[in-house]
Give the backbone structure.
Amino acid sequence: MTARAQNAPLRVTTVRTMDSGRKLALFEQVIVPHLNAAYNLSRWLTRNSQDAEDIVQQAYLKAFRSFETFHGSDVDEARAWLLTIVRNTCFTWLRKRGEQPVTEFDEQLHSAGDLGSNGESILLNRAALSSLKGCVEALPAEFREAIVLRELEELSYKEISAIVRVPVGTVMSRLARARKRLQGCMETAK
């Protein structure tokens, strides 16, 4: 294989007609490299390392089984496709545990000013949120996932929009609100 052929854009258009060995090889080439991104998203959404590992394993099995539905042509599309599966698997798992993965937006609940208005609550927040990790974990799921996908996985607004299935404007709004809450949380934690 020439160097030019190795650097050619991915063409995952004939997966349906491939033999299982070729399908597996293409899956390993296109999807498996995004294992760390899948784990990071799952870990931040579930807040638990072992649960995240289990969810990523389930998500990869789902991705392999439905690999023929992937019609992307590059690495970024593959990552977005996989992270969509990971996100959906996480939310299904959270719902089965009785947790509400995404909450409806409530201005009072989600505003930056809700971190506490009296001395006692500020002290409790400082004790509970002593690091950035604690502050990120304290975010509502939709804010947490937006921050993880944008800041840790460095996805574009458009890619995040495709993964979480909301308009780009909603992604931008969630990121702005998440950043504002993180800033408030970190100031409180000082």
